[in-house]
Specification:
The complex is a heterodimer.
Chain A (H helix, E strand, L loop, with lengths): L2 E5 L4 E7 L5 E7 L16 E6 L5 E5 L8 H13 L7 E4 L17 H28 L6 E3 L3 E4 L4 E4 H8 L28 H5 L15 E6 L5 E7 L1 H4 L4 E7 L2 E6 L2 H9 L2 E6 L6 H11 L9 E3 L2 H6 L3 E9 L11 E6 L4 E5 L4 H12 L6 E5 L13 H13 L3 E4 L2 H6 L7 E9 L5 E11 L17 E9 L13 H18 L4 H14 L9 H14 L11 E9 L2 E12 L2 E12 L6 H21 L4 E2 L2 E2 L17 E6 L15 H15 L17
Helix pairs in contact in A: 1-2, 2-3, 9-10, 12-16, 13-14, 15-16
Chain B lengths: L1 E7 L2 E7 L5 H8 L18 E4 L2 E4 L12 E3 L11 H8 L9 H14 L5 H8 L9 H13 L5
Parallel strand pairs in B: 1-5
Antiparallel strand pairs in B: 1-2, 3-4, 3-5
Classes of the chains: A alpha+beta, B alpha+beta.
Amino acid sequence: MKTKAITLSRRSFLKVSSLAGGGIVLGFSTVKAASSILDDAELFEPNGFIKITPDGIITIMAPNPELGQGVKTSLPMIVAEELDVDWSKIVIEQAPLNTEKFERQVAGGSGSVRSSWDSFRKAGATARKMLIEAAAKKWNVNTAECTTDKGFVVHKGSNKKGSYGEFASLASTMEIPKEVKLKDPSEYTIIGTRQRNVENKSIITGKAKYGFDTRREGMLFAMIARPSFGKKLKLFDDTATRAVTGVKNVVQHENSVAVLATSTWAAKKGRDALKLVWEDDGPLESTPDYMEALNKLIQQKSDAPKRNDGDVDQAFAGAAKILETTFEAPFLPHAPMEPMNFFADVREDKADLYGPTQTPARTRTDAAKALGLPESKITVGMSRQGGGFGRRLQSDYSVEAAMISKLAKSPVLVVWTREDDMQGGIYRPAGMYNYRAAINANKELIGWHLRAAAVNSGNASRENSFPAGAVSNFRVDSHNHISKITVGAWRAPNHNFIAFTEESFIDEIAHELGKDPVAFRLELLDRAKNSPSGSVAYDIEKYRGVVKLAAEMGNWGKQGVNGIYKGFGAHFSFGTYVAQVADVSIVDNKVKVHKVYCAVDCGRVINPLGAEQQIEGGIIDGLGHALYGELTLTKGVADQKNFNSYKLIRIPDAPDIEVKFVNSDAHPQGLGEPGLPPTGAAVANAIFAATGKRLKKQPFDLRIEPGS
Amino acid sequence: MATFKLNVNNKTHTVDVDPDTPLLWVLRDTLGLTGTKYGCGIAQCGACTVHLNGNAIRSCSLPVSAATSGKITTIEGLSENGTHPVQLAWDEEDVPQCGYCQAGQIMTAAAFLSRKPNPTDAEIETAMASHICRCGTYTRIKKAIRLAAEKGGKK
């Protein structure tokens, strides 16, 4: 295989390789994410890959991990558009980790499409151009007279037509063009069309393989007894374990004991039979301790406010009225339906790792460190993933599997039970948010002060969220409470709760001022436009656009018609603007959410069917956790162990959902996360409209007061 | 260990496993039918749902010794080539996101529609309330079941 690389542009380069036996492989890498809006710490640089064989099989590699966000469908759609192929005839394959061919392969920050839009189009267009050049050479005609038609090169003058496969070998010898012309969007036949998930067929027939389904020659199943937080292993006795039929090995790894067996059930029985003695490893906190600590922090300013426009002290000193509200966020487990698991086959000089991960490169780096092997000796493959929600950004479970394989000298699939998964740490941090608003004698909002605190979260706030820019005295203080408990990014990190707090507080202020909550938001947007205070980190027109569209969709303005009360929420995250109206009613003293109307501006939509699905899922996720999500800790140990004590939303609570996308030809933005943040506020504000009760804590306390 | 005869997807298998082994792990680890999923192990999420004599049951909580007398159908055996009306409706409504829970959802929906070919929305919600979809595909599940009912989900 020969490879040549040339510079295509400042930011990307392409490589063409000739396949043994003929054919063309085109890979590309981008050095820097193309996204213009950097609103989150996690930004990711995407990659793509095309393979065309002489017998005409066109394969598009999907380099990013697929965990339900639909990138195995949407990313190849972008390549296929510029390559000009029949979407129904291409093969799509999940690429393994390859940092030479692909710059970075990550699922997170709603970043796959928004950062790969340019490079994926270029990859498709470059391949198409080289195929045209190969055909022109073979036919001895001018390239300008040739075009393509869904997987064929066509010569206009002679009506000659040949499939891409016919020119694949020759194309691989062509120079890579320095410049390629991308399609005008008016020519799109794939981008913007409603395409079903390319894996539907395998999912609905049970053929799709997830990490848990990994089966390899000689593999053993392993379950691990791990210490709870604040404990360490003193001693263990595995006599009974080794007597369990099917148990093949028991190994200790740090403070954990792994049982390896020929089946999952034998591994579980063996683990249950371990006699383990734990000892204390320092004190750990319980939920009331966290809340007390956070409550202390939110009474304080910080030395370095995250944002400080004007002078809030002066504003509050001169205020005619001060509103104050404190919101509380619980810890949450990610609880993906497929619990943690990973396959590892570690040998003396190499390691093969495979399973569900949102960050295969991190997995490899961390495994290399733990195993003492160079990264070049470690391969990481990605299975389809039963959800992730941020949990699989971590490498604890994959590195652990690698260590067990090394210690046991066996290929191993380490599987976690639901209890292991829920009690294994890495939670959405608990937080507390104190807001104060200063209102002057003219009934204007003149001051806004947020004091935020969360557990191990670094920055508990998102200080540039609306209405920052619209309030002349605006300050955000953020505090971090350090604890041994492990936390991590959870779908729409920080946004997932802070949007609820901001948008609930705005609703409260609007009511205090006697203003319609939607009209009040539009007034604030006008102010951010006409007399901004400090920087404005959102596009005011786009924000206004979704606010107005959602209000229109949800027939905003009439409360109590047929017992339906409406609430509004909006939020900007991951490059995308989302506004929602929730319809609720009180039925038999219970809150029922009937419908959520949702307006979205995410730039160009690649796959409207998949895009709607992401927003629907985000809304139900946001609603479900606002209604039920709560993980409490007693001395570091989660009180909830499984779905009988940790409640997730089920179908009877799922509302109807109507989604509209603003028609846009702007750069595509994120979709996996932005649907979630506004929902809690839209529903809480509707409940306020229905009952007069303000909800300040999640999960919502929906007990209806007698007489209300 | 003991020997059990199981009829799975119209084939008879003889398996040598512990009598307390849940059917789920026999299907997945012994017979290699990994389409049936583990989600909770305590019959709370429905990911492990299979049919036993046409009824939707939780294979994570049924010991293999209790499954020998009936016909077991898993997602792999629900139809030839994924053509059961419920499977077709799942594709048409583009239900799956991560997809992990969907085999269980489909098995319950298929058993439900065979008893109730024309369900009301409330009946659909009651029938499917025993399942969890963490991705939140519920609105599409409802649509797909309505669609399958229209197209003859009974089959």
